[in-house]
Design brief:
five-stranded mixed sheet; 16-stranded antiparallel barrel; disordered N terminus
């Protein structure tokens, strides 16, 4: 015997299935009593097993004189049925007796779930109201089935079927089993926009969070239909239009229709754009006698002639209201007003500063933070209990809490306090997982294959701390790093970061040597404004060069030499005597005789590289800072805004080297027509020598495709051109670069593929090598011709040919690229053709790079 409740498609409609004898009948009532009031001498209860007699009798309360009329009996009957304890109730009168016959509902022995693979039993158990040792109630079971279906609906499974089954047990007990057919996820098959003329559907799909189903959708969840997300997308579209000057825009509907044939949803957004407006005038009006509104003009982000931008207006209101509060006007309220000129398509913006109601914050209640400490949340507020209520500061606190990325949802609501001038702030939170474990892999033409394992926690111990440990192992790069960040140092909004790292770079096709670096770097971060930040840092690291013996064994001095702090014995080889100079040879060398350069027969690293090797490990101690300005609309896929980095590092606070290194990097994004985005990239740097300390080759700038695409890594700038050596890049102390790139989508491909094309032109230069050019202890010199070797080992000479092109040659290239925002991580393919280059530069026309986390 069983009964079933099936819920399909997450809808409220349901139907009941009965098999065999009816096991759970509807409560039936037979009432035979005279209509007139009668005196009841006793109430007799029949059929109860668990429910106490007095409990049942208490539902029938006689009136004055101990009488029970039909109305009181009926009220008691209804109340008894509503308890859900009985499947049947009958009432009879026999003289002065009221006989109440009941059939008790079964008791639930256990509640179980079958067929659920995507949702755990624990989650379902917490949602259903039917509990073990509780009374079985059919309406409650029906509600539980709908709750289970709703859980699956929120995860995109609209084809779920939930069938409750009852298995009878002795002593009027039952086992309740929910059988679940989960079904497949219901995706979004198409997204359409109606009424959009100013922006293409392709562009608007970038604005919303919902995605169309594609071949790679299994790697994400954006294509799973979620009505809450679709509704949120309406607001995103509206905000996007308001940001771009369309003050009258309305997203009148977001229609979702299930298509049985395609087994998915068709989503259509209906938009009424209206006209685009620009700012005609900006005015400031203050009703506060002692506060001149024009003094707040510097905090406005709205300028005459610019596009009407609601986000800029909101930020202006916030900054102005906070500034007024700092000046002592705690209750000042800034209200923007816009007067449209429909003919000129302009908006006259007026910021009205008024004295708001004198309201104070009585209490701040924090709810839903089961893991995060209260003080981590409270420190994001610039106000506290007892302060004047300032809506701008409350909105800023809400935005900060969302940016923490600790919570799924953050909402701050107000309610009246204990008096008319008091309000209570309720901070409602829903926490989410903040730990990450990732295995990353990638490959590029520069670094080869690379893999990384990392574990991180953004809210360590619930104290808002960030901690991360990672290990990297690759074809040419290996190492580990430990990072820790305290975002509020000593309760100030100053972030303290600590980094410990060890890196090993191996020799590859672009450099003949490897490096080992072990370092530690503390840093302090300051958020000066929402778009401006400052980082101060100190770095101390130990670095050394590694080199195969065959590339560092050149010594033609018969007595041996002291190179740095290492004694190198005389190392002649058969080729030292027998190797003739190549025809034409180096200047000054007899092209017909034996030249004594046998130690170059197996190749030899450049002089600066061997000097670094001979000198042993070097300790660098440096102070530095970075100033960052960021107005990008999207950090992952920007289409508008400016990103500027300016940084300087001063080495010489102890350690073995001294220099001042300055670098500038700026990228400007702006949308053009038909979803084409232009990117202007400017960069430059200079390395200044301080004191008499020799600049190391490793401290020089090394440039390649990071400056001008189409060139190999370390392929630009001064280079050792000794034909017998490894011809290593020496680097430079000055560089500049400029690039113009146009990125455009492939309109014939679905948006969800994430593919874009790029065309670009690059220009740049690197020059000014100031490292080692001579090594007196071995007689090596830098001049047009080399010291002529002789056949006498005691006067062999060492012709290294440290000659390089050190002019500010302008390198240029043009190319095309393919950019893929793939589920495996960002990938990019570039093919660039150098147009101009230096005499000894090295090119690499094709370049590929990318990585993933999985």
């Amino acid at each position: 015997m069983k009964f079933g409740l099936r819920v399909r498609g997450g809808l409220a409609a349901a139907f009941i299935m009965f098999a065999g004898p009816v096991a759970l009948p509807l409560a039936s009532v037979v009432l035979s009593s005279p209509a007139a009031a009668q005196t009841v001498n006793s109430i007799e209860v029949v059929g109860n097993r668990r429910v106490e007699l007095e409990t049942i009798r208490s539902y029938f309360k006689p009136g004055p004189g101990g009488t029970l009329d039909a109305g009181r009996v009926d009220d008691g009957l209804k109340a008894l049925i509503e308890t859900g304890l009985f499947s049947d109730v009958k009432i009879n009168r026999q003289g002065g007796r009221l006989i109440v016959t009941v059939v008790e509902n079964p008791v639930i022995g256990r509640v179980a779930f079958e067929g659920n693979k995507k949702v755990k039993d624990e989650q379902l158990q917490a949602e259903v109201q039917s509990k073990p040792r509780g009374t079985l109630s059919r309406p409650m079971v029906q509600s539980d089935a709908q709750r289970i279906a709703e859980i699956y609906r929120r995860s995109g499974r609209y084809d779920v079927r939930v069938t409750p089954e009852m298995i009878e047990q002795p002593n009027n007990r039952v086992d309740l089993i929910f059988t679940i057919e989960e079904g497949a996820k219901t995706g979004v098959k198409s997204i359409e926009f109606v009424g959009n003329n100013a922006f293409s559907s392709y562009r608007l799909k970038d604005v919303i969070k919902t995605r169309e189903t594609n071949l790679l959708s299994f790697l994400g969840s954006g294509d799973v239909y979620d009505p809450d997300r679709v509704e949120a997308d309406r607001d995103l579209i509206r905000r996007f239009y308001l940001k771009n000057g369309y003050a009258d825009v309305q997203v009148v509907a977001a229609l979702s229709e299930y298509d049985p044939e395609r087994k998915g949803f068709l989503v259509t957004f209906k938009i009424e754009e209206g006209q685009q407006y620009r700012v005609g005038s900006v005015d400031f009006q203050s009703s506060i006698a002692t506060l001149d509104g024009n003094t707040l003009r510097g905090y406005s982000r709205v300028s005459v002639g610019s596009l009407y931008n609601v986000e800029n207006i909101e930020k202006s209101v916030e900054e102005m209201q906070i500034e007024a509060s700092r000046r002592g006007y705690a209750f000042a309220v800034v209200r923007p007003r816009g007067d449209r000129n429909f003919e000129a398509h302009t908006v006259s913006v007026v910021f009205a500063i008024d004295e708001g109601p004198r309201t104070y914050i009585e209490r701040i209640n924090i709810r839903g933070n089961t893991r995060t400490r209260d003080y981590v949340i409270r420190r994001e507020f610039d106000i506290s209990e007892g302060d004047a209520y300032n809506r701008a500061l409350v909105d800023r606190a809400e935005r900060r809490l969302k940016n923490l990325d600790f919570f799924k949802d953050v909402k701050i609501v107000t309610e009246p306090g204990s008096s008319s001038d008091r309000v209570v702030l309720n901070v409602n939170l829903e926490e989410k997982s903040t730990g990450d474990f990732s295995i990353s892999g990638g490959y590029s033409t520069t670094d080869g294959a690379l893999a990384e394992v990392s574990i991180s926690e953004r809210n360590f111990l619930g104290r808002g701390l960030f901690a991360k440990a990672s290990v990297t192992y690759g074809q040419f790069a290996r190492g580990y790093s430990l990072s820790f960040v305290e975002p509020y140092l000593l309760d100030y909004r100053v972030a303290l970061g600590l980094d410990l790292y060890q890196r090993q770079q191996l020799a590859n096709n672009f450099i003949s040597y490897g490096t080992k670096t072990l370092g530690f770097s503390p840093r302090l971060g300051f958020q000066l404004r929402e778009d401006l930040s400052l980082q101060l840092r100190y770095s101390i690291y130990r670095q050394e060069i590694t080199l195969p013996t065959t590339l560092s064994d050149c010594n033609n001095v018969a007595a041996g030499s002291l190179i740095g702090n290492r004694f190198v014995p005389f190392n002649p080889t058969p080729a030292f005597i027998n190797t003739p100079t190549a025809q034409g040879g180096l200047g000054g060398v007899d092209p017909t005789g034996n030249n004594g350069l046998g130690c170059f027969a197996n190749g030899e690293a450049s002089l600066p590289v061997r000097q670094e090797l001979a000198g042993g490990a070097t300790l660098t101690s440096a102070l530095g800072y970075t100033l960052n300005y960021n107005t990008l609309d999207n950090t992952k896929n920007p289409t508008d805004g400016l990103l500027v980095d300016f940084k300087q590092d001063f080495a010489g606070v102890g350690g073995d080297v001294s220099y001042l290194k300055t670098a500038f990097d700026a990228k400007y994004f702006t949308p053009l027509v038909s979803d084409i985005v232009s990117i202007v990239h400017l960069q430059g740097g200079i390395l200044n020598k301080i004191g008499n300390t020799q600049l190391r080759m490793l401290d020089h700038f090394q440039m390649g495709p990071n400056l001008v695409r189409g060139f190999a890594p370390n392929g630009i700038g001064p280079r050792d051109i000794n034909p017998f050596g490894t011809q290593d890049a020496l680097g430079g102390t000055k560089y500049w670069g400029a690039s113009l790139e146009l990125q455009m989508p492939f309109w014939f491909l679905p948006k969800e593929t994430g593919l874009k094309g790029a065309v670009y032109a690059d220009a740049g230069g690197l020059w000014g090598y100031q490292g080692t050019t001579g090594w007196a202890l071995t007689g090596e010199v830098n001049q047009a011709g080399c010291v002529k070797p002789t056949r006498n080992p005691n006067n062999a000479g060492t012709c290294l040919g440290l000659q390089f092109d050190d002019q500010n040659t302008v390198r240029t290239s043009v190319g095309v690229g393919l950019v893929w925002a793939s589920p495996f991580g960002p990938l990019r393919f570039d093919y660039a053709i150098p147009l101009t280059k230096g005499q000894f530069d090295r090119t690499q026309e094709f370049r590929f790079g990318g990585g993933t986390s999985f």
